[in-house]
Amino acid sequence: MNLSNIPNIKHTNSNNFFLLAGPCAIEGEEMAMKIAERVVEITDKLEIPLVFKGSFKKANRSRIDSFTGIGDEKALNILRKVSETFNVPTITDIHEVSDAAKAAEYVDVLQIPAFLVRQTDLVVAAAETGKVVNLKKGQFMSPEAMQHAVKKVKDSGNDNVWITERGTMFGYQDMLVDFRGIPTMRSYAPTVLDVTHSLQQPNQSSGVTGGRPDMIETIARAGVVNNIDGLFMETHFDPANAKSDGANMLHLDYLEQLLTNLVAIRKVVNTL
């Protein structure tokens, strides 16, 4: 897969999966820089192509009092500082048509949230920026349905598009990953496995989404074995006190060993 259209991406000749990683939301400069420094250190050591992830705002929230952000410009400027400080590309979510051009001034990849991936105007606006567009598969969509979202990006004159599998609703409060969908989606576009959101337990009566972070390595290993192009995972040095998605984020202390294990598996897969 060609990653050369992404500025500042490293280790593209390592034959590893690429990684989208960082906190769920940008909570402030200090936390973002702390997480970025550690993630960059680990991925450089293991020669994993990295795109640093952080949402500049959170629009899809369970409750009206849930954390939504620290201010758009402030958060986007922090993402720019991460990119310039560590010489890495960045990715963030967009939620409205007007977000596309605004965020594109600061980041290298625009992500369409799963709940919004059928919103044609939003997908087209992201595509028209010329940035790579990462389409998260709707929890309510089949793998086959994602070909139409990909086509919207390509028909807008942009061939730089990825799909991210992030689980499918299983009952009211659980998610599952159907690995039969990976080769299907890879036939449409490079495909990423979101190993943290796939383990969410949404729609809790408390209004706070739960999760199963203890299963992150299980899901990630299965993705690597099944030739996933990239992995997505949210990580934080204090998930219990994170302002968004703490219940399913990976503790930053566990990231290096997890990625070391996954790189070892990838090396075996590459010989098959």
From TrEMBL:
The yes or no answer to whether the keyword Iron is present is: no
Hey, which pathway is this one from?
Answer: Bacterial outer membrane biogenesis; lipopolysaccharide biosynthesis; Carbohydrate biosynthesis; 3-deoxy-D-manno-octulosonate biosynthesis; 3-deoxy-D-manno-octulosonate from D-ribulose 5-phosphate: step 2/3
Pinpoint the DAHP synthetase I/KDSA domain residues.
8-264
What reaction(s) does this enzyme catalyze?
D-arabinose 5-phosphate + phosphoenolpyruvate + H2O = 3-deoxy-alpha-D-manno-2-octulosonate-8-phosphate + phosphate
Task: Name the Enzyme Commission number(s) assigned to this protein.
Answer: 2.5.1.55
The record's annotation in SUPFAM superfamilies points to: Aldolase
Identify one Pfam family in the record: DAHP_synth_1
Statement: the UniProt record of this protein carries the keyword Cytoplasm? yes
Task: Report the subcellular localization.
Answer: Cytoplasm
The entry's keywords: Cytoplasm, Transferase
Question: What GO MF annotations does this protein's record show?
Answer: 3-deoxy-8-phosphooctulonate synthase activity
Its main localization is cytoplasm
Under InterPro entries, the record lists:
Aldolase_TIM, DAHP1/KDSA, KDO8P_synthase
Family affiliation = Belongs to the KdsA family.
Its name, as the record gives it, is: 3-deoxy-8-phosphooctulonate synthase
What is the organism field in this record? Tenacibaculum platacis
The root-end lineage is: Bacteria, Pseudomonadati, Bacteroidota, Flavobacteriia, Flavobacteriales
